[in-house]
Amino acid sequence: MNPGRAAIWLLALWLLSLSLLGMYVVGALRLSGDLRLFLPDPASPEQKLVLEGIGEGPASRLLLIALDGGAPEALADISQKVADRLRGSPDFRFADNGSAGVEAIPDTLVSYRYLLSPAMDQRPLDAATLRAALEDRLRDLSSPAAPLLERLIPSDPTFELLSLVESWAPQRAPRQIGGVWFDAAGHRALLVAQTGAAGFDPDGQQRALAELNTAFEEARGNAAIRMTISGPGSFSALMKERTQREATWLGSIATVGLLLLLFMAYRRPRVLLLAALPIASAALAGLACVGILYGEVHGITLAFGFTLIGVAQDYPMHLFSHQRKGLEPLANARALWPTLATGVASTCVAYLAFLASGVTGLAQLAWFTITGLAVAGLTTRYLLPRIVGENFKDPAESAFMNSLAVRLSLPAPSLFLGAAVGAVCLAVVILAPAPFWENDLGRLTPIPRPLLEQDARLRAELGAPDARYLAIISTGEQERTLQVLEEATAQLDALVATGGIEGFDHAARYLPSARTQLRRRAALPGAEALTEALDTAQHGLPFRAGVFGPFLADVARARELPPLTLEALRGTPLGAPLEGLLHKREDRYVAIVAFSGVSAPDQLERWAAALGDAVTLIDLKRAAVGLVVSQRERMLWCLAAAAALLVLVVRIALGGWRRAGRVLAPMSLTTLAVVAILRAIGQPLDLFHLISLVLAAGLGLDYALFFERAGTDREERLRTLHAVLVCAISTLLVFVLLSLSSIPVLRSIGVTVTLGVFINFLFALCLPAEAAARNHGRH
Amino acid sequence: MVLWLVVSLSATAAPAPSIDSLLTALAREPPQSIVFTEFRSSALLEGELIVSGTLEYAAPGKLSRIVTQPYEERTDIDGDEVRITRADRPDRRFSLRRAPELRGLLTSFSAILGGGRAALEREFELSLATAEAGWQLTLIPRSKRARTSIGSIRVRGADDTPACIAIGGKGGESTALLLGATAGPDAAAQRTKQCGVLP
């Protein structure tokens, strides 16, 4: 009997609710790329700073840009156009190509030069200073630079504005051609830009990169000029794109293979649609659940989650393989349900452990997987049977299956053999010389070597901040923070002098503390004194009378100015780069000291230690390793709890330890064997291996449960063998492909699940035989 | 050191009636070097600033201006980069693009010495006046921006020898470069003689 009118209505209704759910998910769920969702909540203030430092530090937001393939003049032109466009873009905090001169300072800030310029500390505005300055200006006026400088002189005879701009330039600025930065050879124009999005936000980085590319394409026109972009943001976007491309490509092949397999196994075209319904329902329901609870979902949750609900792909297979003429599909589903439900419940209960992990990303993962698997199980039990139709070919009557079953019948393993295999695996796990864990997250998405070398070259040319070390100063108030920075500057200058670091950057270089500003203000001469000093200085020089009126007015104005603050700078060209170095977070001001060319980290450590509690030196690499380790510890505890819960549920469902043990043994042995194999080939384990082991264990549990259910009944065993074969082959198809990937993350998942599924299938195959042997013995 | 003023290679000392023949006569192989005295005025100053020194032309696009009197200062132009070095001060560097006057001087210098009329005409409109006292080549920038910032460049000379380069716009010439003359009491008189505008 084929499905009737009611079944078609039900199918239509199901598809409609899926599309409604899909629309809700697309509309309500934001995809987040914030890696911190997957990191444990910071326990100590220092850990908190580390978390803020990762991705928030200026180094991680920096894009290094090189233009080459043209004449220097053309490159300089394009560099200028790109920089101008980026400066106006909301996706960038700032862009610098060395061209910013005194024009970059807004008029409102010009009078502040007497409060901001460090040069004011060395020389007061007295007659001697002015005399020296005026003599210098005379030479400037007869030099080729005269047309550039002439208009600055009346208001700024000491060139305070120029020395201020010079003090802001990087300590080791690149050479300039055509007014913009170039590499030492003069072949490549160089720019730096800081993105608004944090370095760990691949989507934000991708937006910024798209903006940069548009700016470049527009500036370039038809010229054959190339742009090279480097930096953490560009790497993360590149790796994300690469991983996605490869996953999509492999996924497409797998999908085609899967469809072919399903068609070969069931010879019913509609099966292709029906098989997809539970898993599609699972994915959408899981997403909707996370959407309702969190409003956003992390990209990693999605990737892991879709891997984990892969178990649900097997549920309809069991129904299909046991479906045959004369059997009411609902009765079939009812008969399979205790076994299926045990599988679903035990896996779901196990994931409850993740909710207690205290890591948002893992909790999201748990909700997604629990909801998904429950929905897949329930739809397979209650909805699918109503539309599937009963007319399936019984695998028990298939000659192919019969002969296959004979070939696949394995000798019943003795308890001793099982224990021996377990002992060997355990020995390998313990004795293998390879490091047990992979602590370097970077190796999962390794950046190609040439790119890293290029990055290092650009970083050195531009004197860009070091991506590994940074210091965080957090004292609460803005003023106190700036004062600490000022006090730290002398020692940092000493470090630069001894070569421990090549340079450093912090907020007080641009914005001195109010204390310093007020001191400089107090040192400014009054109107009369200044006029007198200027008259004395001008004596005998050919300057026209009254030429310096604007200068007198500017100094008078500076004497009235309130000290400049971060808030007052917001929205000015100076504000954006400053905000990367000093920002307010929950009522506290946090300042970052960025270093470039760190060659003696121990000197930096001594410097930070000498400054006491106010300063925290962060080694981002070490911090990241620490975070990975603590994250993994939590995950392992979760998994241990999950395993215990799972054992308990299986025990309750099967009503005895003996049966439970028989079902759990193949899966446990498989997990041990997979770990042993990975260790034996020298593969350190990472989070992706762990997740994959969990998936493989879930699949193995289902195989074992169904084989155990079939018991010694020949026909049931054949149907179960058919179902499990379809399940295992379809899973293997996907994960064997993944294990061929060039990207280590995908390979980790692929290899682990492939091994797990294969060994689980092998071990589960022994089960009914064992049961049979025991039953025979009893007779 | 080759003083291209002094060493006159041109045997055919006939009057130069056309721009082409003048440019051919003026062409020299780098490196070349010549002493100069420069008069410069500014709206900020009463009177003129006078410096003298040597101009060294090493290759097309490469010019150095070395001031020796009344103080020492060296300006090097290499491609688009200008660097001014003074003994007691950090170097000042800027792009030639930001100094149109200097750029005009360099372009005209390179083009005249290189005999490159095409290069010269790309950037300037040329006009030639001749009189008893010699010739006068006037270069008016084609770009409006350069015209507003530098006005025009006037090169005066006799036979195959340029004697003065004057730069300035409507407000009068702000710079006069007296070539082949060291600073001295007669500099002002020489300037009047060699830099005056030919009708």
Name the features.
heterodimer; A: 779 residues; alpha+beta; 5-stranded antiparallel sheet; 4-stranded antiparallel sheet; 65% helix; elongated; B: 199 residues; 11-stranded antiparallel sheet; 5 helices
Word description of this protein:
In chain A, a hairpin with a 2-residue loop joins strand 4 and strand 5. Helix content of chain A is 65%, strand content 8%. Residues 769-779 of chain A have low confidence and may be disordered. With 779 residues, chain A is an alpha+beta fold. In chain A, strands 9, 10, 11, 12 and 13 form a five-stranded antiparallel beta sheet that branches. In chain A, helix 16 (329-355) runs antiparallel to helix 30 (687-710) and helix 28 packs antiparallel against helix 29. Chain B has a domain at 19-122 and 171-190. Chain B is built from five helices and eleven strands, in the order αββββββααββαβββα. In chain B, a hairpin with a 2-residue loop joins strand 2 (49-59) and strand 3 (62-69). Chain B is globular. Chain B starts with 18 loop residues before the first helix and ends with a helix. Mean pLDDT of chain B is 78; it is low at 1-16. Chain A binds chain B through residues 72-73, 76, 136, 138-139, 141-148, 150, 153-154, 176-180, 542-544, 547, and chain B through 38, 40, 42-47, 49-51, 65, 67, 71, 73, 75, 79-82, 84, 86, 89, 92-102, 149.
